[in-house]
Amino acid sequence: MKQNVSMAITISTALLLHSPVSPCSFPPLHFRAGRISVQRRCLLQSWTRRTRPICFSLVEVRPNVQKEDIVVVGAGIAGLATALSLHRLGVRSLVLEQAESLRTSGTSLTLFKNGWSVLDAIGVADELRTQFLEIQGMVVKSEDGRKLRSFKFKEEAEGQEVRAVERRILLETLANRLPSDSICFSSKLAKIEKTGTGETLLELVDGTQLLAKVVIGCDGIRSPIAKWMGFSEPHYAGHCAYRGLGFYPNGQPFEPNVNYVYGRGLRAGFVPVSPTKVYWFICFNSPSPGPRIDDPFSLKKEAREMIKGWPSELLNVIDMSAEDTLSRTPLTDRWLWPIISPSASADGVVLVGDAWHPMTPNLGQGGCCALEDAIVLSRKLAGALKSGHTSVDDALRLYTTERWPRIFPLTIRANLVGALLQWENPVVCDIRNSIVVPKLVRLRPLLEHTNFTFEPLN
After folding, report:
1. Where do the H-state alpha helices sit in 266-343?
2. The overall pTM is greater than 0.85
3. Residues contacting residue 278 through CB under 8 Å, at least 6 positions apart
4. How many CB atoms lie within 10 A of CB 302?
5. For helices 366-387 and 77-88, what crossing angle results, to 10°?
6. Which of 46, 65, 100, 395 holds its CA 20 to 30 A away from the CA of 247?
7. pLDDT tens profile 392-413
């Protein structure tokens, strides 16, 4: 019993954190004649965290291949924010997106003040603020509906700003601020190789080739560029999540608060996004990611069954969810161990966001950190390109050196918070609900990671 009490007190600092354009086309560059002579130079795999060695290819480049200074691979949050940050600094980039249009599926993401400070800097925050509610506080309940604690964000951390933002609207807003020829859809990367001049040759599945001085990999959790650079596959954290977006055509009935419900090995929550939409999640323990489920009827049925008997307001939000917003996904991350993990930049190729540091959503910092990456990298890269005092490779190294001490602890912390919140031991859960949450938890220190400063865009 004493051991369980001690364990419960230890986790008190973490218990309340959660957050489980028109297409353009390339000129005809489909070369079929001749063969590329390739001299391969592969670095041996030296650390167990890597799934494969980094392979560089020295290729002979055709004289009329399309050339770009900067190519961003991936038109997600990280890719579009990076391209827009560069654009505001007067630097052009080309964004390649493998889908036929913006991938606007999914629900929403919670952005704290560090994310909003970046959106302010790149000029889209005010447009987004008019569409999404500012969340005032947090309410924590037990699975039987008993209120355990409530907080007000601005009372706990002055200047805090919290809003849940629809992913679709965020992507469209970022894309609409870019020049019309900035994004090329249906552009799936097939191969990436280094040239003898230090540039990078990208080949798409349709045979199109591009030669880039800088390649920025923003291609998500399963990033082919990260794999090419020697990074391991993301690690499964032991939890899965159901997610959805409830739609209330006549107006949703909830106060602007984050609402959490804690059970045993199971937690859930919902947060108002706009006057008519409410985001919800259920996070549950699972020894394996399990099979992929796409059928919305099955997803909704399984989600409701999992929290049967929990507060009716949560069940109601699930019932009001549109089919195309429902999902069940495993939670994954990647820990960037010093020395052991590959560098995020090498020979003019660099990673941003989930491609580099996927993290579990327990701190609500995945999207925020991707935005941070975008503005820090863009500032350093633009400075190198304009001044010439710093080489591009040096600028990319400075980016990774600056960002790693920020990203590594947050990834670990998010993982540990998730593990602690998913305790199944009934004694520990009872202590959490009767002592830790009501009497011991303080929100202010738990929001310190949302403090983030950066050089402004000039």
Report:
1. 296-306, 312-319
2. yes
3. 245, 246, 248, 252, 254, 270, 271, 272, 317, 320
4. 16
5. 30
6. 100
7. 999 999 999 999 999 999 999 9
